[in-house]
Amino acid sequence: MDFIGGKLLQVVIAIAIFAAVIGIIMLVVDRAPKSVKDRVTVAGFLAPAAILMLVGLVYPAVRTSMLAFTDASGQGNGFDNFVWMFTQPEALATLRNTVIWTVLVPLLSTSFGLAYAVFIDKARGERVLKSLVFMPMAISFVGAGIIWKLVYDYRGPGIEQTGVINFIRAALGMDPKQFLLDAPENTLFLIIVMVWIQTGFAMVILSAAIKGVPVELIEAARLDGANAWQQFRNVTVPGIRGALVVVLTTITIATLKVFDIVRTMTAGNYDTSVVANEMYTQAFRAGEPGRGAALALILFLMVLPIVVYNARVLRKQREIH
User: Fold this and answer.
1) Is the CB of residue 302 less than 8 Å from the CB of residue 279?
2) Backbone φ and ψ of 266, nearest 5°
3) Mean per-residue pLDDT for 220-242?
4) pTM of the full structure
């Protein structure tokens, strides 16, 4: 009870401090001279957000960048962490796996989502069919990892299989397979989990974009003798190009940061680690915060161009509309 009472007191104090800060800001803004009132108003309401960004975003980024050039004892070691990253076999395997994830997951998720959106468009039971594919999006990555770990579950030959896939293999007279242990294909079995989750996201966005393609254009193409594939390639795809870019870049960013699935299913063992998982392993398990920070810095540099490109595409779309 004392613990709960202490926590409640902290919550009340935090709310009181927040209310006091907002009250002070509004008081200052209200009493500011008319000549600078607009500027004071903007500065007053932007200041809390700016301070939070400095404390929660800018400072950790600077701190991580500095940490990337230190060794396990905190002493500066130049570019040793980056040399380790690009020379050691286990680190290179991590980078290789990340590239495989980044290439396959966006392409497969977007392709499956687009195909599904096209085939069920205006079909009977469209909402139900969409819900079935979108449902994995409601599951956390950890939950999805646990579910698929059970699907891939392995027991020795002659023992009743509880994993769905090995149960089917045994029923067909095949030997059970250790899907998560055998490299390099175990990385592909982990990628399937991410594709299973992201296909629903791609399907929803692309389905909405397809419905926005003008019917007049499709009818005109049909009157010109275009078949279904030609209508899709020459009318639908150009009409949803912006949505395709958004889906591809969004899934790519999510894939670069993937951690939970790998951590839950293999913990990065058996040559399945990716940058985000290795960052955690080095920083919190191996006692090498410098290497973890270097991996975080590389991950940031990999994500940054995609974010900038996505922002430019969205700005161009707003200018067009």
Assistant:
1) no
2) -135, -10
3) 87
4) 0.82
